[in-house]
Structure formats: structure tokens, C-alpha cells
Specification:
Blueprint: H1 8-20, H2 22-30, E1 41-46, E2 51-56, E3 59-60, H3 62-66, H4 71-74, E4 78-83, E5 92-95, H5 96-112, E6 120-124, H6 129-141, E7 144-147, H7 154-164, E8 168-172, E9 175-177, E10 180-182, H8 184-192, E11 200-204, E12 218-220, H9 221-230, E13 241-242, E14 246-252, E15 260-265, H10 266-280, E16 288-291, H11 298-310, E17 314-318, H12 329-337, E18 341-344, H13 346-353, E19 370-374, H14 380-390, E20 397-400, E21 434-437, E22 443-444, E23 449-455, E24 465-466, H15 470-478, E25 485-493, E26 499-504, E27 508-511, E28 514-517, H16 518-526, E29 531-541, E30 545-554, H17 561-575, E31 584-587, H18 601-608, H19 625-632
Parallel strand pairs: 4-17, 6-7, 6-8, 7-14, 8-11, 11-12, 16-17, 16-18, 18-19, 19-20, 30-31
Antiparallel strand pairs: 1-2, 3-13, 4-5, 9-10, 14-15, 15-24, 21-22, 21-23, 23-25, 25-26, 27-28, 29-30
This protein binds adenosine-5'-monophosphate-propyl ester (PRX).
């Protein structure tokens, strides 16, 4: 079976086959990739144990599929186009041949520094091509990459390094984002005070801010590359990996305080991202694909890098931010590189929409043929603006629903094939079997219904484990509903069978498309010396989708409240990172608790949403009076 679906009728047929004969279906899709050895068995699974294995005993290397496989036909085509933060700095174009040479070189550099198959490498870098080289070089030699987004604090990095017991860190002196210089190496130095497992730090020069370099531990990327050149740039052989060997760990927030290391494996992840990239974006050879996500998030992993490269695409990597030097930056990039496919987040669309038409003036967007949205529900206004102002009414929009844990896109239109409706992720991709369940775990059949979104059959990109704690994976995703993967999302299915994701039903807030666990933010707030207790909820935010609202009980603080508020924000920035800073902090004398001590978040959510009338039953509260105080002080 060829990889690409070409029309809606074909989608219907392929979807049916994928449900009737899932193993045959995925085996045929997998034939489109390069395997060093084929599988003995397509699928082994037991959701009750959170066990899934795809393509058992097959051997492959994902970088052979992303790079080597394309060299003959696409060797001189750009694999990566890099647009720097500062538009005055020169862009870079890296062909597939060059990418091959770079990844090989960096792979050898890692080996020279003692990195072996199975070792964990933490990558904390700016959005420069070397970040992609580093990630791919890990995959090339069989090391497990754990990329940490450049906005996380030293404490968050330390937690992630310790959890994965990383041996090596790859970073840069600093990075640029808009007008900011981000002191990456300094942050790493702070983190490493707590991380004895790390024996080597490789530092790329980017901002050339002064950094400390510790003898025996720290070395410069450029010096190490020179050593590889002196060796004559030996070819770094693609390590034969078992399909179920771990490819990477990516940390994500959940409903408990500690982020989970989501683990993906080589074979299934490759098949999943390659297949979904080709079909959702209907990628045509030569098209330029611009995914605006950072490689520190799953979207950057799966589509900016792996999915796009697996299909021999030209992928555009942007170091900066959408609003610097001005709010026309994305449009300028589209014009400059004749971008064909733009894949971005609703939060960016809403923010840019707020600048009106001015930033669009003089920008030629006629190269665009397809648009995509990811990370959070897209409201109709943003959808319409994206459609009319950016797509000029001629570009299909794919509203792609998926998660860090799913590896690839699950529910989405196929561009230009599936009829779209604003705000709807529409239909499942072939191989994906979603279902809605009620609070008793019973599947809700038929259309015009809503419930909690589950997936009832494995797909190749499914999470394999949470690093170092398989039981946590089982309880989080596979124990809420028997024999189903639970997504944590609420969802409706309309009369046409179209799915519309309504948002998280657990204690996770989606801020600007990034998942933040309320418990994690509460833990950080509670670290502040004057705080006795706190409760955090999400509330609707015009730009970010959801904002963070914190209710905080202070001890006998003598400090000014405004100062304390700022100190709390600083504490959260230290503990997690600026992305987790509450938008609103309301000081309260108590929290609405039941007699058993459980916080009634429903009430807090309603007040945060501006609702003060219909708070529901408050009679079970230990102290109903506290609700009046909270309502009176609502921000
Ligand atoms: O709530 C859903 C929301 O983002 C969550 C997954 O977040 P993360 O693992 O960080 O991955 C984001 C990028 C894939 C989901 O549980 N979400 C993601 N895409 C959509 C969405 N909500 C509505 N519509 C979407 N298209």
C-alpha cells in the first residue's frame, strides 16, 4: 500500500481496512521505510499492563530513514532552512548531503566523548541547526535524547537530568529570543550542582556571552568538532536499533507534581510520524514546511524534525519569536522562503490577529497552500482569521489533535481531502480508533454525543513507558478505563461523526499550547517562604487559551502584598520557568474544602472564570463562608 491517501473515498477505504485488519494495515505502511531487518511480529499488546510492542525484533536506524535514504535523489535539496532570530544575520540552508555529513560528524564527536548506545543525553540548546544535528546524532549512535525546552529553569532541568540519569549534556553559551539573551550555560551550571551523573558538558558557541568552563567536565563543541576533522571525518555508522529500543524521552506535565518522562521507541515512532506527516500535510516534493514549534516540544520532535525529514521534506527552523522585530515576522519568513505549509499554534494566531492587518502589508503569502494548527482548541474567530487573512480562503486548515504521549497526529483532517469545520479536529487518521466514554467507563455510541476521549486499540506511536516508572504509565493512562488508553481530554462527536476536542478534564492547564500541571505550579508557589497553601486552576485567556489563576493563603507576612505577589512569581520562575508564572494571584484566608479536606476546584474554577452565581452545591463544604470571601476578592 502506498503511503499517501489521495482522496476522501480512499481515506474511507483505508480507514476501514485499518480497523478491520490493523496489523496488516500497519505492516503495509511500514514497508515504505528502510529496515535493516524485518519484524517477526507486527504487534504485541496488553493495555491492562500498559504494554505495547510494534515490529518485534525488527532492526532499523531512524536517521538512515531521515537522511541516508534520500541522498541519491534529494542530496542537493535543502533538508533544513534556518532563519536566525536577528533578520540581519545570514540564514543557513543545509542540504540532505550536508545534513548527512553534520550528523555523522556530531555522532563521532559524541562517541569521542564517551557516549554509547543506550546512554541518555540531555539537550538544552537554542533553535539553531546544531540542535537538530545533536538530536539526530544521538539517534544515529543509539543514544537516547532528552531535549529540554530552553525556557525551563535550572531546577526543572536538574529534575529531568536526575530522573533520566543523563551522562552528557549538550548546550550552548546562550541563545537569542527576540530582544533577550538566554544564558543557557549558566542555567545548566546551576542545574548540574545537583546532578552527579553528568560527566561531560558540550557547549556550542552562539551568543558568546562569558560562561564558566569547568576543567574535565566542560568542552567546546567547536573544539570537539575539530578533533573529528583531524580524524578525517570518519563515517559514523547508523547503529542497528531494535524497533523497541528507546529513541527519546520527552518530559511532560501531568496531574501530579512531578513531570513524566514520556518514552518513544525507534520503529513505531518512525512509522507513525512519517505516515502522519505525509498524509495530514499532503506533502508534495519540493514544498517548504514551516513548523513554528520549538524542538523542545513534541511538535518540534515529530514534525519539524522527524516526520518532515522522513518524507524528504524541506523543513524550516526559526530561532526567534513571532513578534520581533515586529508582528510581521512569520509573514516575512513565509514570503522570504516561499513557504508552502505553515503549521502553528492557536495562541500564536490569536496574538498576531491582535496586531490587525498592518503587519501583513507588503508580504506575499501566495506560496502558502496548506495551514495547520496544533496544541489547543482553536476558536472560531482565530480559525476564520487564519483562513481568510493568511490562507486567503484557498488553503485547507488541518486542526491536528494529538499529544506528547501519542507521538504523532491522531485526529485531523487530511489537507484538501477531509471537509473541514472550524474548531473540529474532524476524523481519526487510519489506524486510530477513538471512542468516547461516560463517567462509568461505558462507551458512548452514536453521533451528537460527548464524553471523555479514549483510544481503544494501539497505534505505533503510542507511549511505551514513563521513564524509570512503568507503573506510573499504567495508572496514568491505562487504569482509568479498562482496556483503553485515556487521553485526559473531553470531546464531542457531532452529527457528522466529527470530533471536537473541548479541553483537559484532569488537573492540567493548557497555557499557550503548553501543558502545565496545576500540582506542579502549586508545589512551586508553596516553596515561597510566606505561603501556607495554594490552589491553582485555569481560566479562559484571550491569547493564551488558558491562563493560570492561583489562590494563595499567606502566613503572617509583614510584607506588602504586591511585593509578595512578585516574589511568588519569581519563585515559580526559579522552580519551573517563566512559562508557569500565574497570570493572577488572589490572596485568600482559606480554600473551599470538603470535610475530608479535598479542595473543591470546581468552585475555584468558576470564580476564576468570572462566574459568581451558579457555583453549585456548597453545602458539603467545611466552611461555606470562605466562598463569599473568595467571590468578593475575585480578580
Ligand atoms: O488537550 C489537548 C491539547 O494539548 C494536549 C496535549 O499537549 P502536549 O502533549 O503538550 O502536545 C501538544 C502538541 C501535540 C491534548 O491533550 N491539544 C493538542 N492538540 C489539540 C488540542 N486540543 C484541541 N485541539 C487540538 N488540535
Amino acid at each position: 500500500m502506498s503511503l499517501r491517501i489521495r482522496n476522501f473515498e480512499e481515506y474511507t477505504q483505508v480507514y476501514k481496512k485499518s480497523v478491520d485488519q490493523p496489523e496488516e494495515f500497519w505492516a503495509e505502511i511500514a514497508e515504505n521505510f528502510k529496515w535493516q531487518k524485518k519484524w517477526d511480529k507486527v504487534l504485541d499488546w496488553d493495555f491492562r499492563k500498559a504494554d505495547t510492542k510494534w515490529f518485534s525484533n525488527a532492526k532499523l536506524n531512524i536517521t538512515e530513514n531521515c537522511i541516508d535514504r534520500h541522498l541519491e535523489k534529494l542530496g542537493d535539496q535543502p533538508a533544513i532552512i534556518w532563519e536566525p532570530n536577528d533578520p540581519e544575520e545570514h540564514y543557513r540552508r543545509i542540504t540532505y548531503k550536508e545534513l548527512h555529513a553534520k550528523v555523522s560528524q556530531v555522532g563521532t564527536m559524541l562517541k569521542n566523548n564517551g557516549v554509547k548506545k543506550g546512554d541518555r543525553v540531555c539537550i538544552y540548546m537554542p533553535m539553531v541547526p546544531e540542535l537538530a544535528f545533536a538530536v539526530l546524532a544521538c539517534a544515529r549512535i543509539g543514544a537516547i535524547h532528552s531535549v529540554v525546552f530552553g525556557g525551563f529553569s535550572a531546577q526543572s532541568i536538574a529534575d529531568r537530568i536526575q530522573d533520566a540519569q543523563c551522562e552528557v549534556v549538550i548546550t550552548a553559551d546562550g541563545g537569542f529570543r527576540g530582544t533577550k539573551d538566554v544564558p543557557l550555560k549558566n542555567v545548566i551550571d546551576d542545574a548540574l550542582v545537583q546532578c552527579p551523573s553528568v560527566g561531560r558538558v558540550i557547549v556550542l558557541t552562539r551568543s558568546r556571552t562569558p560562561v564558566s568552563m569547568i576543567k574535565g567536565r566542560d568542552c567546546w563543541w567547536e573544539d570537539e568538532i575539530k578533533k573529528v576533522e583531524t580524524m578525517g571525518n570518519p563515517e559514523c555508522v547508523a547503529e542497528p536499533m531494535d524497533a523497541e529500543d528507546e529513541l527519546f524521552i520527552l518530559y511532560t506535565s501531568g496531574s501530579t507534581g512531578k513531570p513524566k518522562g514520556v518514552v518513544h521507541t525507534c520503529g513505531g515512532y518512525m512509522v507513525c510520524t512519517g505516515y502522519t506527516f505525509a498524509n495530514v500535510f499532503q506533502y508534495e516534493p519540493g514544498e517548504v514546511f514551516f513548523c513554528t514549534a520549538d524542538i523542545g516540544w513534541i511538535t518540534g520532535h515529530s514534525y519539524l524534525m522527524y516526520g518532515a525529514l522522513l518524507q524528504g521534506a524541506t523543513t524550516l527552523m526559526f530561532e526567534g519569536v513571532p513578534t520581533w522585530p515586529d508582528a510581521g515576522r512569520f509573514w516575512e519568513i513565509v514570503d522570504k522562503y516561499k513557504v508552502n505549509i505553515l503549521y502553528t499554534a492557536p495562541t500564536a494566531i490569536r496574538s498576531l490577529m491582535g496586531f490587525g492587518d498592518e503587519p501583513l502589508k507588503g508580504k506575499d503569502l501566495s506560496s502558502l497552500t496548506k495551514l495547520g494548527s496544533v496544541g489547543e482548541p482553536i476558536n472560531e474567530e482565530a480559525w476564520n482569521w487564519f483562513n481568510e487573512k493568511i490562507g486567503k480562503g484557498k488553503c485547507p486548515i488541518v486542526d491536528t489533535w494529538w499529544q506528547t504521549e501519542t507521538g504523532g497526529i491522531m485526529i485531523s483532517p487530511l489537507a484538501g481531502i477531509t471537509p473541514t469545520k472550524p474548531g473540529h479536529a474532524t476524523l481519526p487518521l487510519p489506524g486510530i480508533q477513538p471512542c468516547l466514554v461516560d463517567e462509568n467507563g461505558l462507551e458512548i455510541e452514536g453521533n451528537g454525543v460527548s464524553g471523555n476521549l479514549c483510544i481503544k486499540f494501539p497505534w505505533p506511536g503510542i507511549i511505551r513507558t514513563t521513564y524509570g516508572d512503568h507503573e506510573r504509565c499504567r495508572t496514568t493512562y491505562f487504569s482509568t478505563y479498562d482496556n483503553k488508553y485515556f487521553t485526559g481530554d473531553g470531546c464531542s462527536r457531532d452529527e457528522d461523526g466529527y470530533y471536537r476536542i473541548t479541553g483537559r478534564v484532569d488537573d492540567v492547564i493548557n497555557v499557550s499550547g503548553h501543558r502545565i500541571g496545576t500540582a506542579e505550579v502549586e508545589n512551586a508557589i508553596n516553596m515561597h517562604a510566606d505561603v501556607i497553601e495554594s490552589a491553582v486552576v485555569g481560566y479562559p485567556h484571550d491569547i493564551k487559551g488558558q491562563g493560570i489563576y492561583a489562590y494563595v493563603i499567606l502566613g503572617s507576612s509583614l510584607h506588602d502584598h504586591d511585593l509578595t505577589r512578585r516574589d511568588i512569581l519569581q519563585t515559580v520562575t526559579r522552580i519551573i520557568g517563566a512559562i508557569a508564572k500565574p497570570d493572577k494571584i488572589q490572596f485568600v484566608s482559606g480554600l473551599p474544602k470538603t470535610r475530608s479536606g479535598k479542595i473543591m476546584r470546581r468552585i475555584l474554577r468558576k470564580v476564576a472564570e468570572g462566574e459568581t452565581e451558579n457555583l453549585g452545591d456548597t453545602t458539603t463544604l467545611l466552611d461555606p463562608a470562605v466562598v463569599d470571601e473568595i467571590k468578593a476578592g475575585a480578580l
